[in-house]
Every structure is written in C-alpha cells, then in structure tokens.
Amino acid sequence: MTTVNLSLEDAHALSVTCLRTNGCDDPNARAVADRMIEAERDRCPSHGLFRLPWYAKGVASGRANGHAKPTVEKLAPAVIRVNGDNGFAPLGQQIAHQPLVDCTRETGIAALAFTNMFHIAAMWPEVEALANDGLCAFAFTASYPYVAPAGGTKPLYGTNPLGFAWPRKDGPPLVFDQASSAMARGEIQIAARDGHSVPETAGIGPNGEATTDPNVVLEGAQLGFGGYKGASLALMVELLAGPLIGDMLSFESLEDDGGTGGPPKGGELIIALDPARFGNPDGFLAHGEKLFEAILAQEGTRLPGARRFTSRKQTPSSGIDIPESLHQEIQALM
Amino acid sequence: MTTVNLSLEDAHALSVTCLRTNGCDDPNARAVADRMIEAERDRCPSHGLFRLPWYAKGVASGRANGHAKPTVEKLAPAVIRVNGDNGFAPLGQQIAHQPLVDCTRETGIAALAFTNMFHIAAMWPEVEALANDGLCAFAFTASYPYVAPAGGTKPLYGTNPLGFAWPRKDGPPLVFDQASSAMARGEIQIAARDGHSVPETAGIGPNGEATTDPNVVLEGAQLGFGGYKGASLALMVELLAGPLIGDMLSFESLEDDGGTGGPPKGGELIIALDPARFGNPDGFLAHGEKLFEAILAQEGTRLPGARRFTSRKQTPSSGIDIPESLHQEIQALM
C-alpha cells in the first residue's frame, strides 16, 4: 500500500481545513481534528483520518451541525446533560469535562449524558482525561445496527464500546476502550479495504452463515465478543446510551439517517467516580499499582493502552503514514 | 446421577438449619439461605445449595462471622459504604437496599461499596431488586485468583462478574449476571464433579497448555471471555471491588485466607441510576421495550434472564433436584 507521511501538525491542519471547507466553524473543526489526531498520534488509524471523509460528508450534507453550540445543564445533583446541538461529539465533550470533574468531586460519583450528537470518535481520550484528573471513569455509546443479538442473525446493536480509565500514580492512566463486538467496525472496514480476512468469530453472512470475508460480514452481521456475553454488553450499552438518557437506539439512529450514509447520531453516557470519596482516599493509587505489578510480573502481558502510550512517544517525531488513497480522498473533499 | 427432590421451603429450612448448626445466627442464616434458594428457584445450581458446604465451613472455621451486624454509612452525597462486619454478603445487601434506593432517587446516580464481607452469592438478585424499584443497576465483585491476565498463564483475577439490571414496564426486569471469565468457577467445578469436558476457550493448564479437562483448568488458569477483552473486564472489576473502595484484590483475598480454603473475602461495588432523573422520565420504560421487541422479533433470540424467570414459575411446584452426594454432604455438616 502506498502511503503518505504527515507530521501530526500537518495532519491536524489538513483536518481543520477539510472540516472548515465542508461547513464546520473553527471550534467544531478544531475539536474534531483534535480527537482524530489523538487517535493518529496513538496509532489507532480506525479512529483517525480514516473518519475524516465521513465527518466532512456528514456536515456538508447538512445532517450534522458544523456550527453547534453545545449546552450543559444539571438534571439532578449528580447528573449532567449536554445537548450537543446536533453537532459532532468532541466539542461537547471538551465543554463538559470540567463540570463533570467538579460534580464528581462533590458527590463522589456522577453521570454525564450526551444527547443530540454525532458519535464516531474514539472514547478513550475522554475517560483518559478524567483519569488524568484523578477520577475513575466509564463511557458507553451506541452507533448503527451492526451486531446481531445473541441467537439472532440480523444486525441490531451498535458495536457499542465500553471505555474505562483508572488513574495511575506516576505516568498516564490505565485506559481501555473496547467494542462489545468481536471487532470494531472500523477494523472490519479496513480489512475489507486492504483485502485481509477476519476471524470467524467476527461475524456472519446475511443468512447467518460462517465467513472470514470482511465484505460478507459487512453485508451480514457482526457478533459480540465471546458470543452471547459480548451481546449482553451491547444490549446494556443500547439501554444506557438510548432509553436511559432519552436518545436513540442504534436502529433508530439508522432510521433517522434516512439512508444518507451520514455518521450515527445518538447518545453517550459517562460515569465518573472519585476514589478520594470512597474508602481509601490515600491508598487507592498505590493499591492499583500493586495489581499492575502483579500483571506485569507474568511473561507475555502488557497493560491495556500500553501500546498507545508507546506510539504516543514516537509519532511526534516519526509522523504518521496514511494510505495515499485516503490522502487523495481528503484532498478531493477540499 | 442420583438426585434428591426438595421443595423450595424444605431446601430453605435445610439451609437455615445447616448454617445455624455451623455458627450463624438467625438473621445471617436466613439471609444466606434466601440468596441460595433464590438461585435454586431460578435453576442456577452453581449458586445454590452447592455453595452451602462452603458457607458452613467458612463460618465453622471462625473465618466468617456468623453473627455479623453490618453497618451503613454515607461517605459522600452519592456514596454509601456498608461494613459487612466480616460476615457473609447477603445480610449486608438486604440492609443496604433501601438506603441505596433513597440515595439514588435523590442524586440520580449513586454508588454502594460493600467492604469486609465474604462474597460467594449470585449478584443478580441484588440488581434485580433495584430494578424492581425502578432503577438501572450494575454490580461488580472479585473473588480468588482464577483467571489469567491477557497474554499471561497464571491465575490473577477472580472470575469477576458484572451484574446488570434494567426495569421493565410489565413483568420482571431485564437482568444479567455474567462472569468476566469464559465460564463461571462453579460451572467448571460442576463439570469436574460430573465428569464433563469444557470448551477449550474456558481455560489453560498449569503450563499454559490448551485443554478441555475441567480438572486441568482448575489446576491451571481460566481465561476471560472473548480473550483479552474479557480479561480487560476482569481487570476493571479488580480495581472497582478492590482499590476503589478500599478492599482486597483477588490475590490478596487468597493470601488473607491463608490456605484454609474458606470463601473469598472482598469488596463489591454497586452503581445505581434513576432513569427518572435523566432525560426521559416518562418514556424510558416504553423505549426499553422497543429494543426488547426488536430483539425478540429475530428468530432464535431470548432476553438475558428469561430462562431464570421461566424456571421461577416452575420450581415452586416442581421443587428442585440436588445431587444425592451433595444432600449427604449437607446432612453430614449438621
């Protein structure tokens, strides 16, 4: 595959220009670009510039509001809601960070419900930022119907990731952000683009048949990780990101899109806990490290997120390599 | 296998007598018996009378306090802690239910940290009870080191279940309670007892080798469901049930046991959310039903927990069948 090497700064500038050309104002363009380049910086291309055409088309078509002004309100002593004003998630997430931190420190645990937003960004930067402020955090979001329910064969749930972060004593937090499906949607799309096969656990064809062809999975349904247990998690995330907070289920989001192929609109729930308000305010950090040491004492292990933090040290100097075809697609959008 | 049929009432009375004979006072014996018979009633034998000898020995040895008087305190506006007074979990859980419901309704989301308790009970009755009061709830608990970390071969995490419940409009809540491991510990023990094999995904032998022999898995390590993603969940649960709330990690719990083979002591975290304090107080129940209808519209599906609710209608008249060997073991403990 022919690639183009870009510095992180150039990739960011390219993103901002492309988004502004397609109808985002500066704050929205920068927030989305920040999130994509955080993914590229950590070498997670499936949430990087790969998503830029989708963002650009979503705003150019008028489906997403490129001038969104998200608003924050308190629904209960420990519940905050952000109305995303029909824009992309990252700007609302930036605005909501400090109110959530403040609320969590006050009550010990708090929830943040994002509604009326388009969610195609990685979630780990959000929970990582909360853990950088000393909190433990979960994030849940739905998407479009991609994953079959346990026992079924038709897509119903989104890939419905769970993000989690825990603060560490020295250095970056422990963070993971994993789909309830065996594979992330973007990973399957990239396998299809690059002509690779996928494991048989990743999904099934349109008639429920076994397959390792990513194109057939994209026409059929993805499967939950570990079978029915992953599907249970996907179901849980639908409830948390939809009915709980008054936003859409994955299949409602697709109906709402009306076949335009735009990014999924929907809700997101974040739960943050302040360990300093639980039972071991002075010892929780050291206690967590005891677990991490025990994990790393076993040969062959690494902590979730560790690879991202390694990449993060390298890409500021190495830059990132994106497929030339993607680079051309982005150029054509400007 | 020769079995003995018991009515639910007789099974409950047998449990109370056995626990009292071994050192529980009446409130503790009844709370533990209630929880075990709820499992038997729902035909989940791995959390039923199968656990009674472990409870009985745990209290007879003096490791667990059969006269525990759990206490409830508020650590923050949305954080409650229950000190289990070194007893079994069910009594503390009964006592904490209403304070948690009240707190959650006030703040919108609340956490309940159980510490200083022995946890070998099913968690779904707790989250189900919260959903019966209209709340959405999570439960997390660790146990003993049974599960290898991702990439490793030695047991480190507990099977670390996640319980979840969502209230339903008519009828019992949607509930699941699933181990982070591919199989529950009790299921593997029962497979070993009954001479059945287990799937290769269930675990590995002492040297990391593949196996389908449950006895070899019990000597080696269990694996997370879906591989590394289940292991990530197990890691998360360790942090929530241990360092977050100031209780023990699974491997610390085993050290604390000191080789007596008693039940695992440790912590449990419950998070409850009141959907009436989020964005759709009048519509969240109907909206959840819309998802459940879409699931059930697919052939071959059922909702998590549905089998339990079916069993629950049958066992009050059919009674339950327990292995004669278990019945004899219980008789010998009285």
Query: CA-to-CA gap between the ends of chain A?
Result: 23 Å
Radius of gyration of chain A: 20 Å
CATH-scheme architecture of chain A: 2-Layer Sandwich
Number of domains of chain A: 1
The overall pLDDT average of chain A reads 96
Strand content of chain A: 15-25%
Give the largest chain-chain interface (CB within 8 Å): A-B, 73 and 74 residues
Low-confidence parts of chain A: none
Task: Describe this protein's structure.
The structure is a homodimer of 334-residue chains. Chain A has 334 residues and is of the alpha+beta class. The model of chain A has no long low-confidence stretch (mean pLDDT 96). In chain A, the strands form 3 sheets. A 7-stranded mixed β-sheet of chain A has the order 2-3-4-10-5-6-7, with helices on both faces. Chain A has a single domain, classed as Malate/L-lactate/L-sulpholactate dehydrogenase, NADPH binding domain (Ribosomal Protein S8, Chain: A, domain 1), CATH 3.30.1370. The first copy, chain A, is globular. In chain A, a hairpin with a 2-residue loop joins β2 and β3. Helix content of chain A is 42%, strand content 19%. At the A-B interface, β4, β7, α8 and α10 of A face β4, β7, α8 and α10 of B.
Helices and strands in order, then pairings?
The structure is a homodimer of 334-residue chains.
Chain A: E1 3-6, H1 8-21, H2 26-41, H3 52-60, E2 71-76, E3 79-88, H4 89-107, E4 109-118, H5 124-132, E5 136-141, E6 162-166, E7 174-178, H6 185-194, E8 203-204, H7 214-219, E9 221-222, H8 228-241, H9 250-257, E10 265-273, H10 284-296, H11 306-318, E11 320-323, H12 324-332
Parallel strand pairs in A: 3-4
Antiparallel strand pairs in A: 1-11, 2-3, 4-10, 5-6, 5-10, 6-7, 8-9
Helix pairs in contact in A: 1-2, 1-3, 2-4
